[in-house]
Structures are given as C-alpha cells and as structure tokens.
Amino acid sequence: MTWASAVTAAAIGVGAVAGPLAAATPSVAAPQRAAEKTTSTVQCTSSDQRLATKLEDDIATALEGRKSMASLSFFDRPTGTSCTSDAAKKYDSASVAKTIILGALLYQRNGTLTDEEDALARKMIIDSDNASATTLWKQLSDLRDPAKPDPVRVQEFLDKAGMDHTVLDKEGVWGLTQVTAADQAKLLRLFTGNDDSVLSGKARSYALDLMNQVQSVQRWGATAGAPLDSVVHVKNGWLQRSQNPDVDSFDRGDWKVNSMAVLTENGYGSGLVVLTENNRVPEGRPAEEGWDYGIETIETVSRAIYRDVYPDADGYHPSRPTSPAGAPSAAG
Q1: Which long-range contacts link 20-23 to residues 24+ away (Cβ below 8 Å)?
Q2: Which residues of the chain carry a pLDDT beneath 50?
C-alpha cells in the first residue's frame, strides 16, 4: 500500500529545535527580514507552457491573502516542470534539517551505517526524534569545543551536493540551520535521482524509505493533494520562537512551519518544498493556531500544484493532530 507508514505509540516526533536552546538567536546570519508581508512572483517553466501559466496563476492565488511569509520550490520530471517563489530566502530549518543530517551521514559512511547509526537515523526521520538528531549532528562535528560542535562533515556534504546557500549553525543548534527552498529541493532531486557521485543508489533508497515511513500524524503539508497511487516520502519541521525580549521582534512568538515531500514510482517523479514563517498567534488565542496557520498555507499551495499537474488523480487528504503535542516552544 503506497500510503502505509510506521505508526508508533510514542508521542509525536517533535519538529522543534534540539541542542543548547539557551541561545537566543542563531549564530549565523539572521534570516532575511521584512517589515510586512510582500507577495513574491511565482515563476514556472514547463515543456507544456499552458501548464506553466496555470501553475503560476494558481500558486499565486493560493498564496494571495496569506498573512505569513512563504517560499517554495517544485519540480516534476515527467512534465519537465519547475516552479519557484522566493526560493533563495533563508528560513530557520526546524526538523527539515534532519534530512540534511541524514544525507551527510550517508555520504560520510558511503551508504553503509552501523546498527547504532541505523537506529538513530530511523528515530530521527520516522519519529522526528530530536535527541537522535543531536547525537548524529555531534558525530558529524568537530568536537574540540564540545559546547559548540562544528558540523564540518555536514558542511562537506552540503558542498558536494551543491547546497551553497544553506548555513549551518555553529553553536550546535541544528534546528536553527538556515535553509532555502531551492537548496532543499536540490536535496530532494539528489535523493530521487540516479547520480552516484554524491550518494550511492543504496544510500538514496535508504533515505527515501525512511521518509516514506514517517508517522501518519506527521504526513501533513507538502503531501496534501498528492495522487493516491504515488509513493510519498515526507519530512516536516516546526518551531515557535519565544516571547523573550532578547529575541528579534520579527521572530518573537513566530511559528516557523516547513514541509518537503517527493512522489515516486508508478510514473511519478516530483518534489515540493514549502517553507513558512511569521505565522502569528492572534492575541488571546491558543499558541497552536500559528502552527496550524502555517500548515494550512503549505497545504493550500500543495493542493493547487498537484491538482494542476495531475488533474485526473484522486488527491490525498492528510490528517494531523490538533496541536503540536510534545514540541517545546523552542529556539528562544
């Protein structure tokens, strides 16, 4: 069954930051800031010009009126289609950084993991376990200063993969790694491609297998509207910055909600990354409303894209918990 996933009795694998959370701000350059939401141009190319035009219009409509900020990158190999919107903008990664950690681990180990590494990688991706991600991050780091693990081996992978705009956090807070939709789409292309120069076929299949087994309660986002006969691989991430006065006013209380997914097999070959921030909580309302608003933005875009590219397919309707249970309001 193409939509089967490994559901565990554990709490939700949290999408928030792990590591030394006492750091109030990233040690890297801060993400691009804006005083207010601005609408970015959606640009699409395709072997079918009518499809490209329709995607541009429908993605723009999906983003119209959203109060948060969003960037995206989409590709579909069968139709030769790609779309971007503000794809070079940097965002706090939250748990989508775990796909980078996984890629770096597989690169460094030539696709063959120890039993311990396999167990950690599975927990990190399938359950979104933060402690496992932190352990692997440290394994891939220079630990001469244990308080500031420098992820040099992760950087080696990024350099090899051509992910030149991703900025790793040098304080060891992997969830504050700065990512772009364009670079995360490069990673999805790498996982689903046939180029062995970075990752072997064995390594690529392993990464996709773990993303296919992500818990059912974490399969929301860039999966919404995906054809039911496709095989879907997904990884999401979310975090809320604190209200502490030492946090940049732009970030204070801000929900970052990100999602990336690829469709494979049965003639499918596409990838979608949507990154969002500035998902605010209305005054006096529960904190999870900002998280939910970010998910809704992603899923509105996702449905619009899949509806245009696969107009005859029955689309997937992901479920999600009513709140990000188990996720600390980290990074502040």
Answers
A1: 20/147, 20/171, 20/172, 20/173, 21/173, 21/328, 21/330, 21/331, 21/332, 23/171, 23/173, 23/176
A2: 1-36, 326-332
Q: For position 11, what pLDDT does the model report?
A: 28
What pLDDT, on a 0 to 100 scale, did the predictor assign at position 12?
A: 27
Q: Which domain holds residue 218?
A: 43-309
- CATH code (residue 219): 3.40.710.10
Structural domain contains residue 201: yes
Q: How many domains does the chain have?
A: 1
Indicate the angle between helix axes 181-192 and 201-212, nearest 10 degrees. 110
Q: What is the pLDDT of residues 225-265, one digit of tens each?
A: 999 999 999 999 999 988 788 778 777 888 999 999 999 99
**Residue 63, class by beta-carbon neighbours within 10 Å (0-12 exposed, 13-18 middle, 19+ buried)?**
buried
Q: Is position 34 within any domain?
A: no
What pLDDT was estimated at residue 255? 95
* Residue 7 covered by a domain: no
Domain assignment of residue 120, yes or no: yes
- Report how far residue 240's alpha carbon sits from residue 324's, in angstroms, rounded to the nearest whole number: 10
Separation CA 159–CA 166 (nearest Å):
10
